[in-house]
Every structure is written in structure tokens, then in C-alpha cells.
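#struct-queue
[09:14] JT: dropping the first one here, sequence first, then the C-alpha cells:
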Amino acid sequence: MADTPDTEYPSPLRRLGTRLKQKLPGNGNGGRPRSLRYAHLIGWGKYLPEKVLTNAEIAQIVGTSDEWIVARTGIRERRIAAEHESTATMALSAAREALETADLNPADLDLIIVATASPDHIFPATACLVQDTLGAVNAGAFDLSAACTGWIYGLSLAAQAIATGSLDHALVIGAETMSRMVNWEDRETCILFGDGAGAVVLGPSRKPGGVLSSVLGADGSGGDMLSVPAGGSRMPASPETVSNHLHTIHMDGRKVFRFATRVIRQAAIEAVEKAGLTMDDIALLIPHQANSRIIQSAARGLKLPAERIFVNLDRYGNTSAASIPIALCEALEEGRVEPGDRLVTVGFGAGLTWGAAVIEWMAKPPLERPWRSRLRSVLYALAGVRSRLRRWWRQLETWLFRPPAARP
């Protein structure tokens, strides 16, 4: 009789080892226990285009007024990307600032996530463009599509990967060029959106804190409430889709409003309870900046006073996935966040998606290290040289090793 492989009839010793591994704590580490790690936010940065578009200027494009827009949304102005700017270029600027505050070099990154609903291309991923220009040679990179909730989704994924030891440093960016996604003849949507980018760097620590909990949710049955109908595989571009403005944002404002006011409160409470806290422990709520009435409704539901809610909607409008990281950066700049404070970030968006995260802020203001900043500037310049050399080599390689011509 032939010998039976161990995989089919394992030996008693092998079976014992398997049982022991199943009982040992571990997260994808072969059953071996792993020391507890926490994912802390150690760097942050933002970018906003210089061009400001006021309500009065929009009123010259479409039938509306400053009073009408402010009363219904709370927005007074928004930023619009210049012709030479894109989601990738704005994400890159925010990323460099985040690396600066983290005092981290691009090669130290293990992962780059760009949350966006307005990527430079369907593919390649905008994150890959950022990875190349940064010179983050050791990082994986991908785009995350969860609309306005995308940054919270990315934060949750990166924090869990760091906590389990899968990686050490992650760059999570929210970046949008929404001004190129709106129909400037539709006053229901063109008044809402603006452009910008915000980024954070996450790193590991044995010290408790950082991302304490996160909650993610989705309900695809409401996908038609907020969408860009054309441009994908279901409805590819055609003269009809272009003439009917099907490549721009379509929104049922009333349904989105009712959905948002409900899920913001629910998600925030669930995330806080998951962290073992109460709303009394929360120093600041940083919501997705979509509409002032939605934020006010959430504040009432959570019984939070205005001074414990951060709002910059009036100056930037809805920057989709970029809105929460931009607001976080501004809250830090204004001294609204101190080490030891617990924050709640919460958002909602197309999909439908929603999410919330509780963060215990432990980072301190970065020390100025001019020589380190100069070194990073050199590394960014070298990244451009490296990218050009790699493209040149691919062309040479294709020429040198091209397959022989087929015989007639």
C-alpha cells in the first residue's frame, strides 16, 4: 500500500500543533501571539486651490443668489482647481505636507490610499501616480471609491493593518476635483461642491491611543439618490450621455438630506460606544462638510454644543472625501485639538455609504528639522529622475528584447 501524504492523514504531533495554533491569539501571523499595537495619526497636511468662487459669482452663471445658497447650505464660497491642477497634484501636495509633519521620508511608507470620487483616470489609480511622484518605492497604492465617506473607510483599513502588524506606515489621502464633475446649469448641485485634498500619515505605537474604533456601513439600494450615471461599463460615453449631462453629479437632495441626518447620529454613537466611551468624553466632532442644516441636525441629535463641532463648510463647500481631513488639519491649526483629546470623524456619501471613527489625539506639534526638510526635497527631485529613467528603460527593454518577427 502506498504511503499516505501527511496532508491527508496528519500525524498526531501535527494535529496537536494545529490545535495549539488555533487557540493562540494572532492576526494572520501563523497563530503566533503578536504584541498589541495602536495606529496613531503622526502626520497631517492639506491643499486648497488658490481660486475662490463665491456665491455671487455662481449667481452670474445659474439662477440663484448668495442669500438662497447660504440659507439652504451654509456655503459662502468654495475653491476651484486651476487648469493645471488635478486630483493627483492636489493629493501630492497634501501628502508632502503630511510627511513633513510626520518627519517621515517617502521610502518609509508601506501603503498609500487615495479616497476619491474624481480620480485622474478610471485607471491607473491616482494613488499610483502619487506613489511614483513621491518616490514611495516601498509602498503599495490603490484608490478607494466610497464617495464622501471614502477617507473614513481608508483610515479604518489602514489603522487595522497597522494594529495587526501587516504594515507600519500608511498614507491616507482624501482628494477631489469635484468642480469638473458638476453640471454648472444645475443649481441644486453646482452650488455645493469644491476642490481640495487632505492627508494623514498613520504609524504604530505601543502607547494606547490613535484610532480607537471605526464603523462602516453601506446601503446600495439608495445608490440612485446620488450618482454620476455615465462613464462606466453600464453606460459608456456617447454623444447622448454627454449632451444629457450624464457624466455629472445627479442628486435627489431631499432623500439624501433625510438619509444623512439619520446616519450621522447613528454612526457617531455606534463608534463612540465601540470605543467604550460616551459623547461626554468627546472633545470635538468633525463631520463631513456637506450642508450646515445636516450638521446642525446631527448636533441636536448628539446633544453637542456648537463649540464642540468643527465647521469650515462656509469657506470650502463640500469637498467630498477631502472634507474631513481638511477640517481636521484646520482644527489643529486653530488650536481646537490638544494631545489627549478624543475626536469623532463621521461622514456619509454616495453608495450609499456612511462611517465614523473615534480618534484619541496623541501627536504633538512637529519639531522643525530644516536639514530633514531639505533631504526630503532632494528625495522628491530624485523621484522624478527615477521615474523618467524607469520609463526610458522600459522603452529600451522593449526594443532590445522584442519578439522575433513571425515568418510568412
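[09:21] JT: and here's the second one, same format:
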Amino acid sequence: MAFENLFVRTKKSIAGIELDAVISEGHASDVRLTSNPVELGADITDNAIIEPKLLNIVAQVSDTPLGAAAFSQIVDTVSGLFGSATTANLTRSQAAYEAMIQIMEVREPIEIQTKLKLYTNMIITSIKTVQDKNSSRIVLMNISLKEVLIVESQIVSLSPDQLLSGSPKEQGSPADDRGRQSTVTPTGTTSTSVLKSIIG
């Protein structure tokens, strides 16, 4: 694949921050299957859980970008998101790095446009970068992201009869009313019979 097609025509972005070059993308989609035996005829989907998708991007932003990318684009994006960036105190690569750090610390789900697909509800979990003598005009970031699984709760209204059904009052066994019982005092004959049965 030509350099131009990989890094210029295929636009990639993280939360609206366009990247000059994406060196690599790592995509992970997993289903966690139970290790316990599954009863014959049971719904297999109840025993196979879809794990959050994982994404790892190694990307570069330069102070001297190729194509139509401009310094003001990233700085304006950072200013719009956080209101703190100015062209006077940030280079283009510094602005991109600062934007990524602040997006991670805000901890809001973001969209990630990659070559393979558009990811939604992603949280940046890690940003790693190393600067040396060869990277004074660029920032090379290793960015890890994880999907947030969002579910929607449903409120169900119950009638008073439904609320009472299944209550402890109904679940308990009813008392067995046998009426008024009178006490019985053993007679001498009964006591003698019991004694005879013991001594033979």
C-alpha cells in the first residue's frame, strides 16, 4: 500500500483530533465462554459473554504535517474542547498530546474512526510516548482504548395487587385451626400400664 494512501487519504481521528500518521492499529473483539458444563438444550448465549472491544493505536502528529493538515486545526479543537490552548504557548504536536491527555482525564466516551470501522463509546485508558533526539518535532503516541458497554434500564409500574402478590404473608403456610383443645390428665390406670410396659 502506498504511503499516500495509508497516511493521507485514509483519515483517522480520535475524538475529532485528526492524526497525521497511524503507524499501527490493534483491534481485539472477544467472547468469554463459561468453563462450566452447559446443560443440553440450554441457551448458549446465556453462557457466552461479549467482552468490551479493545483498541490500540500507535499514531504520530508532527509540527510539519503533510497535505492539508494545519497547526491551527488541532489547537482550535483543543481550545473548543477545553478552552485552555493558545497558539502562543503550544506547538502542533504539543497541542495534540495535551488534547489526548485531557480527553482521557475527562473520561467521557468518544468516537474513534479507524480504517476498519467506526468505534463508539470508547474510553482512553492509557497514553504512552517517548521523546528523544529524533522526535523533537513530532509526538509518537501509543494509545489504548476500551469500549464502555452501555445498557438501558426499563422502569416497570406495578399495581397494588402485583406488589402484594408473592409477599411473605401469602407465601407463609396458613395456620391449621383445630378449634379449642382441652388438656388430658393421665389416669392411674394409664400410668400403671406404662410402668408395666417398661419393666416387662
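[09:30] RK: nice, looked through the second one.
[09:31] RK: Strands lie at 13-14, 17-18, 21-28, 31-33, 48-50, 54-62, 110-113, 118-129, 138-147.
[09:31] JT: good to know. Residues 1-9, 67-71, 82-86 have pLDDT under 50 and may be disordered.
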